[in-house]
Amino acid sequence: MKKISILSVVLLLSCSQPKQFPEFSVHTIDHIGKNLGQTDLADIDRDGDLDWVTGEAPWSTTCRLWWWEYQGPDSWVRHEIGKADSDVGGDCADLNGDGWMDFWGGKVLFLNQKDGTFNRHEVGTIFSHDSQIGDIDGDGQPDGLANWDQYGLVWYSIPADPTEPWTEHMIMPVTGHKIHGGVAPQPFGDIDGDGNTDIVTGEAWYENLDGDGDIDICTKPWSTGDEHFYLQNLLIRPKK
Ligand SMILES: [Ca+2]
Ligand SMILES: [Ca+2]
Ligand SMILES: [Ca+2]
Ligand SMILES: [Ca+2]
């Protein structure tokens, strides 16, 4: 599990010479928390600059999740989001379409209330090491991707009301995809350039083969020979 013991961020100081190797300086954000993860940068308060999110893993006992309002390189204002329930997975996205960045990590969705506070909702997702948001089925709407080495790799379609239970789709159970991490922070991309979204993890990559907008599974484990698996997803179709 990734651990962060000191809350800090490095900022680029000088890039006046494009070919010059960049220099960095360390700025401390805060001194708080234990077993930290669930990190992301997003403009939480919609003032045009990036704010920062992080939270504690369950074995910290307090499980606090915060966001820090950026006011300047050495001036960050801490705001509590709520009680987390994730290992280190967490991602910001606007999940209810109101234009304000929300947060999902592990079992919990936090909806931005536009005043610096968040409402907490348990949406039926798994406790996970990795929790990432992306458009997996190609319908233009965000979906969730989660990985845990006690469960497997799954994705979730998110209902119009994201506080309702999310629908789970198993990509590969833990018997075929047992990896502690290796999914966050960027598992989505058109790996083969055929116009649809594929998923890459530290274990394998999952190719969308039939171009119907859903994710099929084509995997070749790193550690074995020439064996490939292909499973076509017939359950989820994009809206016509
Ligand atoms: Ca901001
Ligand atoms: Ca929102
Ligand atoms: Ca989608
Ligand atoms: Ca592709």
Structural account:
With 240 residues, this protein is mainly β. The chain contains no helices and 19 strands. The relative contact order is 0.11. It binds calcium ion (CA) (4 copies). One calcium ion binds next to loops.
Average pLDDT works out at 85
Instruction: Give the tally of β-strands.
Output: 19
Bound molecules: calcium ion
Which of globular, elongated, flat, extended, rod-shaped describes the shape?
Answer: globular
- Fraction of residues in helices? under 10%
Provide the structure class: mainly beta
Unreliably modeled segments: 1-15, 235-240
State the distance separating the first and last CA atoms. Answer: 41 Å
Strand order of the largest sheet: 3-4-5-6
How would you spell out the order of helices and strands?
EEEEEEEEEEEEEEEEEEE
Radius of gyration: 19 Å
Strand content: 35-45%
Largest sheet: 4 strands, antiparallel
Task: Offer a few descriptive terms.
disordered N terminus; 19 strands; four-stranded antiparallel beta sheet; mainly beta
Brief account:
With 240 residues, the protein is mainly β. The chain contains no helices and 19 strands. It has a 4-stranded antiparallel beta sheet with strand order 3-4-5-6, with no helix packed on it. It has a 4-stranded antiparallel beta sheet with strand order 7-8-9-10, with no helix packed on it. The chain has a 4-stranded antiparallel beta sheet with strand order 11-12-13-14, with no helix packed on it.
